[in-house]
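Homework help board

Subject: predicted structure for assignment chain

Our instructor gave us this sequence and asked us to write out the predicted structure in token form, then describe one feature. I got the tokens but I'm not sure how to describe them. Can anyone check?
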Amino acid sequence: MAALDPDPDTVVETRDGEVPTLVLRGELDSSNMALLQHAVDAVLARRPASLVFDFTELTFIDSAGIAVLVTTRAVVKQIEIRNPSAILRRVLTATGLTDLLHLEP
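My token output:
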């Protein structure tokens, strides 16, 4: 697996109104989870009621990425996953995360 580009734009926080949105790009695996965890921690420090992960440009996620989603859901009441590819949707469904996370198209 190729690691995410170390560019700081790999995980970008944007805003959708009042909802923080993390745009994820490339591949999320154990070799680069610090980038995602750092971005999530910064958002969680503001105690948002909801959080969006935009998967439009995400091509792969492994168990380390899934673990971040699960632990984030334990803190944030509502998490939305936007634009997962068919394969990422299948992974989230197979792991049972669709019961915890709201998937948009």
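Reply (TA_rk): Your tokens look well-formed. For the description, you could write something like this. The first strand starts at residue 11 and ends at 16. That's the kind of observation they're looking for.
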